Amino acid sequence: MAKKPSLGRQKIAIAKIPKKNHLQVTFSKRRSGLFKKASELCTLCGVEIGILVFSPANKVFSFGHPEVDSILDRFLASKGARSDGGGSTHNSGTRQLFEAHRSASIQELNMILTQVTEQLEVDKRRGEGLDKATRSGVGGGGHPRQFWWESPVEEMNGMEELEQLRSSLEELKMHIVGQSTRLMMDASRSFMAPFLGLEYTARNDHGDQFDRKPDLDQVNNAAALVQYLSFPQENGLF
Amino acid sequence: MAKKPSLGRQKIAIAKIPKKNHLQVTFSKRRSGLFKKASELCTLCGVEIGILVFSPANKVFSFGHPEVDSILDRFLASKGARSDGGGSTHNSGTRQLFEAHRSASIQELNMILTQVTEQLEVDKRRGEGLDKATRSGVGGGGHPRQFWWESPVEEMNGMEELEQLRSSLEELKMHIVGQSTRLMMDASRSFMAPFLGLEYTARNDHGDQFDRKPDLDQVNNAAALVQYLSFPQENGLF
DNA sequence: GCCGCTATATATAACGG
DNA sequence: TCCGTTATATATAGCGG
Fold first, then answer.
1. Cα–Cα distance, B73 to B91 (Å, whole number)
2. Residue B192: left (phi > 0), alpha (psi -120 to 50), or beta?
3. Residue A30 CB: number of other CB atoms within 10 A?
4. Which of A118, A24, A130, A233 is nearest to B171 (CA)?
5. What is the pLDDT, as a whole number, of residue B31?
6. Which string of DSSP letters, residue by residue, matches A150-190?
7. Which 8-state DSSP code applies to residue B28?
8. pLDDT class of A56 with cuts at 50, 70, 90
9. Is residue A202 left, alpha or beta, with left meaning phi > 0 and alpha meaning psi from -120 to 50?
């Protein structure tokens, strides 16, 4: 007797869910889960958290502990507190933090390095293969080695590869910046709903605040969200 | 026999964790988890999410999808000046912010580069023997093309290969970005709360942004790196 | 869209190095 | 302090109502 109680939780790829009804269900469930996690984090560690979520239907869901407005005020307050450039503000404490940060980054980068090295090995192997072909005259045809990947190992010295990698990284950077701009435009056009003036308020068992606001004028309110979320970045600059 | 490899995950009450070190650990882990969940939700449902977290040490952590700082930059640029007066001044500030952003990214990339350099040194030495054997036959007199970007443009006709290479690098980039941001998520601990005015940005596999504030020294260093990295790109490859 | 259910996928508390 | 492991607590995908 075939029993089909349930397939149980199935693994899904982290990519946009195609089926809209599935997406909606997942959105609801995961949004709840996210807020719950945030709530627990707030309680467990006694920290303040604010979350804004713009649903597929352009509705705004928010979570705040103790409340969204407080989080907001706190940002605005710190923002106003710093009016100068703050260029000379880093003291010994700052340096300490910097060191902590630095070491942390290096740790991460070590792992990144592993990945990069692997890829590098692949690339190099390919280069060696091409090299062999070229030397034996297969691809010679009067065209000398013009590209680094065609170069035999002897030409592919550290410097060249390094430069090659540098270019790759440079490209990466440009990609990031470029995409940022594009996404920025998209965002300002479609999402960024209102953050201020939330209408519906509820609280969970921990006193956290959950707000939801039906679609509003996105573009206008985008400003508020952007400022909230971005405030730390402009701190001391404007 | 007596089993004691690990007690495994223990159930904990959702109440403020008394032990400070435990709290710190939990904060880091759960913050990472929270951001990851948010990231997944963004990708799965194609929604916008912003999260602000004030750490126990009053540091600010933020998560944003898709962009945060670029959105701000663009928004402020089109919106107009803030409190610093004229629009030109504002634009200057905006440019500063943007540059800072780029610098920060590059700074991180440079760290990667530095590490990779070491690896390359090893690889290079390993291939030096072959290098010597073939060098004399390359390019005849003068100095053979030391660097791949020195190749005459006219010889850059292997566009297909170029494209293939580009793809390869693209893949490499993805690895770098993916890994770095994934780790960055966890690394965004502490740091330069509302003191410094520059931000640090990374992205995870889903294009979400994680920000934190770096030390000014870092930024200065990054500035130098920008120059260093602003190397000849007119090779037609990137 | 909101439950409830089940079987799994994930997240993570304790520990050890 | 950070990282990796392990055993377990939680979160959730798919399905029904």
1. 9
2. left
3. 18
4. A118
5. 94
6. GS-TTTS-HHHHHHHHHHHHHHHHHHHHHHHHHHHHHHHHH
7. H
8. confident
9. beta
- B117 vs A117, A208, B123, B143, CA distance in Å? 10, 49, 10, 24
Which regions of chain B are under pLDDT 70? 1-4, 66-238
Strands A48-54 and A60-65: antiparallel
Average pLDDT, integer, range A203-226? 46
Q: How far apart are CA A94 and CA B195, in angstroms?
A: 9
Residue among B212, B203, B214, B188 at smallest CA distance from B31: B188
pLDDT tens-place string over residues B88-116: 333 333 333 333 333 343 444 444 444 44
Tokens of B58: 């009053």
Contact A238, B77 (CB under 8 A): no
To which residue do tokens 């960024």 refer? A192
Alpha-helical segments (H) within A68-91? 68-81
Token readout for B236 is: 């037609």
Residues A105-138 as b or e (16 or more Cβ within 10 Å = b): beebbeebbebbbebbeebbeebbebbeebeeee
**What is the amino acid identity at position B157?**
N
According to the model, what pLDDT value does residue B61 have? 83
pLDDT bucket at A2, cuts 50 / 70 / 90: low
Is residue A93 pLDDT above 90, yes or no?
A: no
Kindly report which amino acid residue has its CA closest to the C1' atom of nucleotide C7: A8
Question: DSSP secondary-structure letter at A10?
Answer: P
Does residue A230 approach strand D to less than 7 Å at its CB? no
Q: Which whole-number Å values give the CA distances from B193 to A225, A232, B25, B89, B199, in the listed order?
A: 19, 8, 19, 25, 10
Q: Which of B48, B30, B28 is nearest to B39 (CA)?
A: B48
Mutation site for A-interface testing, chosen from B53, B107, B208, B238 by largest number of A Cβ within 10 Å: B53
Q: Compute the distance between CA of residue B49 and CA of residue B65 in angstroms, rounded to an integer.
A: 6
Q: Which residues of B touch A150 (CB under 8 A)?
A: 161
Instruction: List the single residue in B17, B108, B179 with the smallest CB-CB distance to A111.
Output: B179
Are the Cβ atoms of A235 and B197 closer than 8 angstroms? yes
Hey, what amino acid is at A111? M
Give the protein-side footprint of strand C (Cβ within 7 Å).
A 5-12, 24-25, 28, 37; B 6-10, 12, 22, 25-26, 29-30, 32-34, 36-37, 40
Cα-Cα end-to-end distance for chain B: 62
